[in-house]
Amino acid sequence: MKGNSYFSRKLHSLVGIIPLGGFFIVHALTNFQAFERGPEGFQNGVNFINNLPLLPVLEFVLIYIPLLFHGIYGLYVAYQSNSNLGRFKYGRNWAFTAQRVTGVITFVFVFWHVYQTRFQVYMGNISHEELGSTMNHIASSPLVFTLYVIGVLAASFHFANGLWAFLISWGITVGERAQRVSSKICMAIFLLVSALFILSLVAFRGDEFKEVADAVTAVRSLL
Amino acid sequence: MAETTVASKMVTFIITRQDKPESQAYSETFKVPYRPNMNVISALMEIQRNPVTAEGKKTTPVVWESNCLEEVCGACSMVINGKPRQACSALIDQLEQPIRLEPMRTFPVVRDLVIDRERMFSALKKVKAWIPIDGTYDLGPGPRMAESKRQWAYELSKCMTCGVCLESCPNVNERNSFIGPAAISQVRLFNAHPTGEMNKEERLEALMEDGGIEGCGNSQNCVRSCPKGIPLTTSIAAMNRDTTKQLFKKWLTV
């Protein structure tokens, strides 16, 4: 199969769900531990991920490389589209434009978020144990909190609506009824995943994460 | 005043005009005397007979294309009050005034409301939207088509290459080489035919090239706009399924 736009676009659709969509769900569930079980639960989630075998390989093969491909090729896909919402005010046409807008928002948000968290760990500025307190610091600022809420809403919509489109692009949902039912399921997924992320962000604002942060600082100062 | 009583029986048109393919578009307003049951074509004929703008300025007659006048040829497609459709089936009684007429700008404008739909016919050639039966001897009758299949395939055969689906598609534009919904649905039609099916791989391959089926972004405007009610999005999804199968077949069996 020669490398043409059919192949690239199909791959773009695939990596958006496998592995990126899968990672996105795992990320939502890990964060939600902050809401469900507090700082300790969140730390267990972080530890679970960090104890996975071949972690650097997993991160590059399943996250960074697909993310860069999906993001950069996605910007090109967005560039190739017009928005004609003025003339065609249909729900699906709104979703079409929203898919491209949320894609660009997510692209920017992911870079910023990775810089604030994972990149700081790489640089040695923070440790894995301090991610909770880093998130407390991030979520405590009203401005950053708002930007994060926008970011997670955009990412969740992009994922859920992308799942709907993936089912069509791969020829799984063919008929009109199948596509209508899957769109309802995907919108339910959007609401659910958004709720998981927003509740986690609210939880990160809690004093218990600040106390952990204080404790870590105290231990640091003693050492 | 006499004029006011006359004006109440006038139909106002705001028409986007363009003298040459490369020249600037401009708009002109026309007032046409109302007649019962008139459609956009009969109003355009009225303007042709008396090409005077609402301001009383003499102008060139507005140019348009039309043929069958019963919504089966697709020639008179234009943008009427923001929506692409056929002028012959656009009844004045059902339109909000002033009635705005524009050419379908997705296609090259030849003059006024006349556009060049050549890209649609090229697309049909590209996907081989026909059934090859020519040979050096009589091949005899082909296999029969099941009636249940014929019924849905007949719906797809109603496509008149009018271009409304391309005009409504946000991915058919100058930055994108997307072939458009019409030709994809024709691949489904000809691949459903028992004789056409014998060449189905050729048509699927044509959709798996640059600007093929992957250009669809699922805005689904096409199916909402199609004047013949063709299930275009179902056709696209069905061809997504068949091209996916073709992709794996090529990877795994050859």
TrEMBL record, chain A:
NCBIfam families, A to Z: sdhC_b558_fam
Domain of life from the UniProt record: Bacteria
GO cellular component: membrane
Cellular location(s): Membrane
CDD domains the UniProt entry points to: SQR_TypeB_1_TM
Annotated keywords: Heme, Iron, Membrane, Metal-binding, Transmembrane, Transmembrane helix
Main location group: membrane
Identification of the protein by name: Succinate dehydrogenase cytochrome b558 subunit
InterPro entries linked: Cytochrome_b-558 (IPR011138), SQR/QFR_C/D (IPR034804), Succ_DH_cyt_b558_Firmicute (IPR016002), SuccDH_FuR_B_TM-su (IPR000701)
UniProt: heme binding residues: 27, 70, 113, 158
Transmembrane segments: 12-34, 54-76, 97-115, 145-173, 185-204
Gene3D superfamilies on file: Fumarate reductase/succinate dehydrogenase, transmembrane subunit
GO terms of molecular function: metal ion binding
The keyword Heme belongs to this UniProt entry's keyword annotation: yes
UniProtKB/TrEMBL annotation, chain B:
InterPro entries tied to this protein: 2Fe-2S_ferredoxin-like_sf, 4Fe4S_Fe-S-bd, 4Fe4S_Fe_S_CS, Beta-grasp_dom_sf, Helical_ferredxn, SDH/FRD_Iron-Sulfur, Succ_DH/fum_Rdtase_Fe-S, Succ_DH/fum_Rdtase_N
Transmembrane domains' residue ranges: none
Class of enzymatic activity (EC top level): oxidoreductase
Gene3D superfamilies for the chain: 3.10.20.30, Alpha-helical ferredoxin
Domain 4Fe-4S ferredoxin-type: 150-178
Record-listed E.C. numbers: 1.3.5.1
Keyword line: 2Fe-2S, 3Fe-4S, 4Fe-4S, Iron, Iron-sulfur, Metal-binding, Oxidoreductase, Tricarboxylic acid cycle
PROSITE patterns per the UniProt record, alphabetical: 4FE4S_FER_1 (PS00198), 4FE4S_FER_2 (PS51379)
GO molecular function, one term: 4 iron, 4 sulfur cluster binding
Essential cofactor(s): [2Fe-2S] cluster; [3Fe-4S] cluster; [4Fe-4S] cluster
Entry's Gene Ontology BP terms: respiratory electron transport chain; tricarboxylic acid cycle
SUPFAM superfamilies reported for this sequence: 2Fe-2S ferredoxin-like (SSF54292), alpha-helical ferredoxin (SSF46548)
Protein family per UniProt: Belongs to the succinate dehydrogenase/fumarate reductase iron-sulfur protein family.
Matching NCBIfam families: dhsB (TIGR00384), PRK08640.1 (NF006391)
Protein's UniProt name: succinate dehydrogenase
